[in-house]
Amino acid sequence: MAVSGFYKGAINVDADPAVYYSGQVVSGSVFFDLEQPLNFSVLYIQFLGEANVSWIEIETERINGVENEKRVDYLGREEYVNLTQPLAGGAGPAQLPVGSHNLPFKFQIPITAPSTFVGEKGHITYSLTAYLMYPDGVTKEDLNKEIEVVAPFDLNLGSPRIREPIDLEFEELHGCGCFCNPDPVTVRIRLPLSGYCPGQTIPVAVEVDNESNVEITKMKFQLVSKELYRSIHPASEYVLPEKFLVSAKSGPVMGHSKRNFTYNLKVPHFIAPYLENCTIIDVGYFFRITIKLSGCTDDLDDEAEICLGLVPVSGFLEGEYTHPLANRLPKGPIPVAAATELLPPPAAVGLNGSTSSLQRLQYNAVTSAYPSNPPPYPSGNVPYLSQDTFQSAESIEMKPKPGSDYQIGFKAPTVPVGNVPYTPMFPNPYASQTAVAGGPAPYPTNMAAGNNGLPPHTQGGFVPSAPPPTD
């Protein structure tokens, strides 16, 4: 016998796997079977995209000469989308009949939504949750499904600096007073561009002019990533140890010799997250060169920030570029937007990495209504809402997580974070009401229908940012 009941149902979406570009439309349905009629007040679905960071530190404080350890919880949270859409009910007590139920829904991901991200101290997630509220206004059941969002970054839409080469130069005179010859060792490194895509090969041009007796025993080329997390309550930052994405070496170069060569460094296969529109998590990528010398000399090293995108710089590659993980990318074309949606980047003072990264474009979120003409519900007496669309910047049942009193909408550490209001991306189409136990649920029954047709959307400006390299 088939298992029935709302809680045994499922949320199905139109993409398999459930991966979408920022700006794409998520459509699907809530499916469940009932073996007996179900009394309820409203059935609705919520689309929530949020970032959360958290870490714990043990601090020592001295009170009256006595040292005590104190636990400090660092927390941060912000939202990118929070929409709800009723599927049935909403006008008072109602009843779902016996049988199979398949209720359609449709949401649009904001063009500014950052990529899904899972890190050690924080994450960015997007979820669909269907809620079934009972007539008492308190009891509810829910179904949940997470989707993945890829914020696509076209390197051609970034700063002109992406097309500029990266030049690193080392020049050392070695005269340590005993064995070292004070003649110079000069090494020049050049990368043709500052932006690449996974799977591409970076031709690292190396020019060595070693006039000393010191031998260059090894040159190490690396791509590293850095992650920075920002808390809101209390305001602080946490930088993880860097991660090595790829490492390769070349050498040696003997003393009193010259050598010119090109080393091909391949960008590893992965889908790089783009988090420019997330203010509490930063991820950045860097090219690093380390030169090891013989004798009594220290290593030489330097690094430069690079950008990893989804669409490569035009004119750099011969032939057509295919992402090495194309089978894991969303289906369909990357959404594009009208030029009128472009906004200048905000001047966020004191936000390390976000305003100083290689490229930064920011698009205005577009308020949109979707054509929604659901088929008639398979029952004549179920109170379907007749309106075409429903989207709210506030969840009907969204409550702060237990123990969390921090604010949403943190933009920069220099802004007071005690009372930072959350500015909704979409207007609330209905006035708030108060629920009365046993009475009609406080849900909208008269909502303005949206216009038909989806608005044009753009390739979003999503740029990796991270703490600037240390000297």
Question: Keyphrases for this structure?
Answer:
471 residues, mainly beta, Immunoglobulin-like, 6-stranded mixed β-sheet, 21 strands, elongated, disordered C terminus, sensory transduction, Arrestin-like_C, Ig_E-set, Arrestin-like_N
SSE topology string: EEEEEEEEEEEEEEEEEEEEE
How far apart are the first and last residues' alpha carbons, in Å?
68 Å
CATH architecture of one domain: Sandwich
Number of helices: 0
- CATH-assigned fold name of one domain: Immunoglobulin-like
Largest sheet: 6 strands, mixed
Query: What is the general shape?
Result: elongated
Low-confidence segments, given as residue ranges, are 339-471
Q: What amount of the residues lies in strands?
A: 35-45%
Mean pLDDT: 75
CATH domain class of one domain: Mainly Beta
Count of strand segments: 21
Classification by helices and strands: mainly beta
Helix fraction?
under 10%
Keywords: Sensory transduction
Pfam families: Arrestin_C, Arrestin_N
Protein name: Arrestin domain-containing protein 2-like
Family: Belongs to the arrestin family.
